[in-house]
Specification:
single chain; mainly alpha; 3 domains
Length: 231
């Protein structure tokens, strides 16, 4: 009997409560009450208890079957797209680098030769140095090699700066508009004289007013455009 009680205590079906000077007391745990209930159901109706147990097992199997399986490491690696190595972008060429690669033309060499001759006349270089730099000049292929030719000397400007027309001053625009406004009455008068065909003198005066008004407007426009180009 004691061995059976000890086994039930080990299986957590029964809990032992020791008493001082008295035999220990035993009471059912939650697991023991559940097991006792199952045993009672089996005794009362064995077929119903077996059916209930089988249903619980089938339910657990169905839950496990419906649970998605985690992908294995090989499958996850195969599903991932292959990593491409990073592309290294070439840095854009600076304007100075592009300018240095330009090949020298005959006018470029002629201008550089004149610049060396001018530096020789100023006394910055002597005759042997002039000859050495001239040989380097005619051996150079591109503009980047001219640095050695003009080392310590002012280099000539091979490209003329592009002249960008400036903005016309506002007061000149108002003067031009006023000049056009002054010519409008003369143009209208000349047109009305030509349309009247009164006599030859009237037609001539009409032509004079029309031509004079057109010439006036042209000179006003050219004056405004010339001031814009020179700014």
């Amino acid at each position: 009997m004691q061995s059976a009680l000890d086994q039930l205590v080990e299986e957590t079906f029964v809990k032992r409560r020791p008493q001082q000077g008295m035999p220990a007391e035993y009471e059912l745990t939650v697991n023991g009450a559940g097991r006792l209930k199952v045993v009672g159901e089996i005794i009362e109706s064995p077929s119903a208890a077996i059916g209930k147990a089988i249903g619980g097992v089938l339910k657990g199997i169905a839950v496990e079957a419906m649970r998605p399986n985690p992908p294995s490491q090989s499958q996850s690696q195969s599903q991932q797209p292959p990593r491409q190595p990073p592309r290294l972008r070439r840095p854009p060429a600076r304007p100075s680098m592009v300018r240095d690669r330009l090949l020298l033309s005959d006018p470029d060499r002629s201008l550089c030769s004149d610049a060396l001759a001018e530096q020789f006349s100023l006394g910055r270089i002597d005759k042997p140095e002039l000859d050495r730099r001239t040989n380097l000049l005619y051996a150079a292929k591109n503009r980047g090699q001219l640095r050695e030719v003009f080392e310590g000397l002012p280099a000539p400007v091979l490209d003329k700066p592009i002249k960008v027309p400036g903005e016309t001053p506002r007061w000149r625009v108002w003067v031009y508009k006023c000049a056009v406004a002054v010519s409008v009455p003369f143009l209208l008068l000349g047109a009305s004289m030509l349309a009247s065909h009164a006599n030859v003198a009237t037609v001539l005066f009409g032509v004079f007013f029309l031509v004079g008004g057109g010439v006036w407007d042209y000179f006003a426009w050219s004056w405004m455009s010339r001031s814009r180009d020179s700014s």
